């Protein structure tokens, strides 16, 4: 067992933390979380501040939602019982954590192997001293499985020691239906979901099994005489299953899974898990040479992205904090489609398909939301859980401790276009016609129908969308937000395109779909007119998109005067003044530039970026990545690199952004976007992919893999020798476009070409 607790030797693959700061303990728990898209286990301190419990992480199960019985109920993901609880003590009380010189409680995240390691020392004065090594993971190969190992060595002392392993904390959010020695079954209070867990626990002393001295439901206890040099090993395998209806029996699933795992043993479970991680890394690793901090940051990002998805469950998606914390109640936002889906589409298309099928399964909830407001089509929930019904709270406590109304659920309507954008990007990159015909086309058509209903004609001959919130959430109830309107127009046009495609390529399926959706040529004609007359806010003379009607008339606040602030700008200025100013919470027009660069002709992309970049206060963790992506595409790579490291610091540095509530998973997706779509200049085209690399000066090389319509590609950008090398590792020949010039790529014909040197940073863009 001791060998299993040794981390990967290469420092680029491990994250270490040797500190012990109680004020930052929740941040460490988040950072070192292990998850697999179904199970998540936070890395709580091996000995908590009560000095009693060895392991006490919060445990999460994807899709385990319930709605509390309150005056204003909001669905939330409930906690699962903590299957990692361990306590060690003597007859007179618990052993306590020794805080001596040097590292007091080192934690290690072995990203290559997908597991967390911890060490500590427990003492009782000068009489007893033991050293502990701990390991935990949740299996990437069999997502219902979790494993915990504990390796204890007695340094000194001969005394009776008691070790207790148990499940804790399941009674608050769940109702117990059955508890047995190795099995538990719970149900939610209101949603009708059930959770089953089973466990096999063994303790060995110097290689010999020790039977438990006491047993209770999901609790095992051993007492033995310790002596110096003694080695004690605890092994715990847990299996977990969730059911969403009364016709499913999660108990039978976990019992069978546990029987299989027990028969194969923890070493086999671990080998399968490590193999699954090796396969994931072979498809998704990003290699940066010359910038160790950037390499660690992008590995950390890819680790958490790979940990967050479950391609086997199309009924769940990824919440804003994944399975790493409780913030946002586990709710799903536009983060998934805009910041995460590109990674999965191009490295793990099976996971991308499953995430989009979640949006298909929640389409009825989106239709109901639109109908409630008198519109047609599908208006997706801004905050979504398992049903697709709107889950945004109505009120919250603001930074000034005042109660404020939350309007995003009603007004942040671009979510429907965001979902459509991800559907189209997935189909474009995978060529998955089966998905398009069975699910994707319906999403595109129903979201297109929503926008055609939502935009209204006015006397100026244009269609307007009034009373919305754009990505910049500092300004509410605004008219003709550029991001919303241009994305809506794009959405309608893609709906018309898919309608024509289905009619030509799959006429029978198109006829059935039209009949089911009550869709006819008159509808499509109306949509065409709406798209052609959509108000966009574009000033043809300046090339600037006005963020929303009246934005240019607002107070222009110089944000440089507030450099070094530790709170968001709406706290500095107050909500009312912020709403009367041009201060932006996060990328809005810049986000539009990132998603639809074709909407910005000639130099207008740079013009808009130069205008809006200095007006953004970056009050959201989503913002810096979008700015970095656009800066890299425009060739300002040093500004982009600054945004890259600022984004990495959100979860990796102990800065003003607290991460105790979970990893900012969209920021992690943003790091990958900046790297691949920004510095490598990736673009998705109808005839293949394009690359236009511009690396930071400190990056000697950049390498990554891609999946494209059944093909696997390897890309390496060598800045030292100014070369780009693209090889096709599997699949049919294709076209790849480099700086606008097409090239052929096949299995026996790799592409090696020159790259352009990036231009120097342009101070005007600041």
What does this structure look like?
- The chain has 766 residues and is α+β, with helices and mostly antiparallel strands.
- The protein has a domain at 22-254 and 273-280: Glycoside hydrolase, family 65, N-terminal domain (Beta-galactosidase, Chain A, domain 5, Distorted Sandwich).
- Helices cover 33% and strands 25% of the residues.
- Strands 1, 9, 10, 11, 12, 13, 15, 16, 17, 18 and 21 form an eleven-stranded antiparallel β-sheet that branches.
- Strand 17 and strand 18 (208-209) form a beta hairpin.
- Helix 9 (415-430) crosses helix 11 (482-505).
What are the main properties of this structure?
766 residues; alpha+beta; Beta-galactosidase, Chain A, domain 5; 11-stranded antiparallel sheet; 5-stranded antiparallel sheet; 20 helices; 36 strands; 33% helix; 25% strand; disordered C terminus
> What's the mean pLDDT score?
93
CATH topology of the domain at 22-254 and 273-280: Beta-galactosidase, Chain A, domain 5
- Say how many strands there are: 36
Sum up the overall morphology in one term. globular
Q: Span between N and C termini?
A: 54 Å
Keywords: Glycosyltransferase, Transferase
GO biological process, one term: carbohydrate metabolic process
Family: Belongs to the glycosyl hydrolase 65 family.
Domain Glycoside hydrolase family 65 C-terminal: 683-745
